[in-house]
Amino acid sequence: MSLEGRKINFAAGPAKLPEEVLLKMQEEQLNFNGLGVSVIEMSHRSKEFGALLNETISLIRELMNVPDNFEILFMQGGGTGQFAAIPLNLKGSHDHADYIVTGAWSSKAAEEAEKYIKVKKVFQPSKPYVTVPDQDKWVHDEKAAYLYYCANETVQGIEFTPTAPESHNVPLVADVSSNFMARPFDFKDHGVVFGGAQKNLGAAGLTIVIVRKDLIGKQQAITPAVFSYKEMIANNSLYNTPPTGGIYTTNLVLKWIKSKGGLQAIYELNLQKSGLIYGIIDNSNGFYHCAVDKSYRSIMNVCFRIGGAAGNEDLEAEFLKGAAERNMISLKGHRSVGGIRASLYNAITLEETQVLATWMNEFQKAHSA
User: Fold this and answer.
1) Of 362, 29, 13, whose CA–CA distance to 154 is shortest?
2) What are the beta bridge partners of residue 320?
3) In contact, 200 and 187? CB cutoff 8 Å
4) Which whole-number Å values give the CA distances from 304 to 69, 174, 236, 331, in the listed order?
5) Mode of pairing for the β-strands spanning 190-196 and 207-212
6) DSSP notation for 283-332
7) Predicted TM-score (pTM) of this structure
């Protein structure tokens, strides 16, 4: 078993997994726990898989300090599937829901929700997405079914930090897909917290949904069973065959997080990594430019342009080429915004971040003229 030939993967998702997790997966691929089969071959109804599933739920509850009045579900359809599942499950007798649109993913969520509930935006979004308007300027409605926000916009690099938005007496719904377990999380005022596992917690295919118990049972009649929180809870996430391999992978990642000291230790390391890259940007005399308001800069997805605010595509292409030659991949920004995006998820080490930092300094020096 060797890690030779591994790249430094700054992809936005699916993203890097910890090497320790990959090696453990390799070790157990043919024979999980001495059972003579792989996890992905096991029956999801077996007692062995049931034990794995329940252990994974317990690890999430422990690491995130999930309150007892929340259920933890394993679902499918990605975070995008929850864009529909949330209004389908939470509409109840309400007429509408409030949405905070701060980037590409919250915009998509609002657009999808409009099929199942009336959507009101608490402020008028404006592009380019680079900040979050002051909350005292938001238009809230205490009769809304919920208030939706994306905790971290992967495309634009905008993150609600350090606290969630004010709820105004309605349940908060948080999409934490790209900063899931990257920092301690406060469940205060939240009704639903969800995210795909493929950025910080495992492999694509598994969606983790944490739902407050008093919100269960309000689903619309048209809600598909696989998207019904009530149905999934009644069946311990086994209404249909779950992504068994994904749950196993997440189990290993959770154990890895715990071994590293838990969320506070992970958070401190993430601050150190992102601070290193933002420090180079801010001290580059405009050679590197991050347009995001410093109050809302993501510690997960550092987005920037090279050669000034508008970016110089020739310089950026040269930077990416040099990065690839130095074993770094997936640094190209999202097609809708361009530039560079370094995704510094939990599995990215400080040493790997330092390789990027060194290249950024070298590249600026080479083009300082």
Assistant:
1) 13
2) none
3) no
4) 41, 25, 43, 10
5) antiparallel
6) TSTTSEE--S-GGGB-SSEEEEEESSTT--HHHHHHHHHHHHHTTEE--B
7) 0.97
**At which residue do the structure tokens 């430094």 appear?**
8
199 flagged as catalytic: yes
Q: What is the b/e burial string over 215-252, where b = at least 16 CB atoms within 10 angstroms of the residue's CB?
A: bbebbeeebeeebbbbbbbeeebebeebbbbbbbbbbb
pLDDT tens sequence across 86-145: 999 999 999 999 999 999 999 999 999 999 999 999 999 999 999 999 999 999 889 999
Tokens in use for 112?
Answer: 């999808």
Residue type at 85?
A
288 SS3 class: strand
What lies within 8 Å, CB to CB, of 365 at 6+ separation is: none
**What is the Cα–Cα distance from 173 to 188, expressed in whole angstroms?**
11
Q: Which of 199, 256, 273, 332 is catalytic?
A: 199
Indicate which residue of 175, 256, 273, 332 is catalytic: 175
Residue 332 a catalytic site member: no
HSE, side-chain direction, 13 A CA sphere, residue 178: 29
Assess contact for 210 and 66: CB atoms under 8 A: yes
Question: Distance between CA atoms of 63 and 86, rounded to whole angstroms?
Answer: 24
Structure-block tokens of residue 128: 């380019």
Closest CA to 147 of 100, 180, 185: 100
Q: How far apart are CA 113 and CA 96, in angstroms?
A: 10
pLDDT tens-digit series, residues 33-86: 999 999 999 999 999 999 999 999 999 999 999 999 999 999 999 999 999 999
Q: Going by C-beta distance under 8 Å and a sequence separation of 6 or more, which residues neighbour residue 265?
A: none
- Which is the catalytic residue, given 105, 256, 273, 332? 105
